[in-house]
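tool_call: predict_structure(chain=1)
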Amino acid sequence: MLKITGKMDLNSIDFYMEIEAPHVARKWKPGNFVILMLHEKGERIPESVYSVRDGRIGMFIRRHGKTTLELYHRFKVGDYIYAISGPHGREFPIKHYGTVIYASDAVCGHAENASFTQELKKYDNYVISIQTFETGKEVYPEEFLAEKHADEHYVTTLDGSAGVKGHYTDLISKIISERRVDLVLTGGSLAGMFKASELTKRHGIPNYALVRTIMVDGTGMCGSCRVFYGGAVRFACVDGPVMNAHLIDWEDVMRRDKRFIEEQEKAKNLFLSKIIAR
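tool_result:
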């Protein structure tokens, strides 16, 4: 059993949670992820890691499914969850690349934006961090943005109510038209990463993306996170989740990501109805 040591809202749908997990904290590297189980027979949910300190890991979590809603509504600081397995996934090679952009537009991407930016700075990279939110009201508290680690940091909002108006891909397009960029990293929505992949491919800039497909066991055994990658079959949980964006069949990834929408909605609505009935 693992103790919850921190929890707070980041915006209307995302929250931060910190949990004691020394077995993960000892081995975690950028690119790795973890899998949470709230109960012995609970669903396994993959999560990106935002921070590692003193044997504890911090995560950004979105309340978009039955299990994450249960974690948000029924667990508080001082409670215990059943298990965290990991670190899972392939470590991304952190080294000197030159000028690096990390851009994100959703919860898992924002977590890795902060952790990658911090690690890339240790190798004397010039790091430009871009974080996109729908509106100004949805922008995370300053302490949870990647700004404190980056050489340049931009918030963009889709409605223009804060920061630069538009999506991160709009800003990437502007930056790479004005100066040399040696590497682009992206995380968050699949559609956003697909668009960034097409953009960077046209400019000949290496681009690695956080391929957070539907995962179950995190060991490559279930096959749920299958990705067509450079003409071969790969699994995001063991061959990624940070993968060369130019080799990914994005249309297949996005099609597979919608497989269980109906079941997910039923489970979520059933759980919410129980909360309302209490």
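agent: DSSP finds eight helices and 17 strands in the chain. Proceeding to next step.
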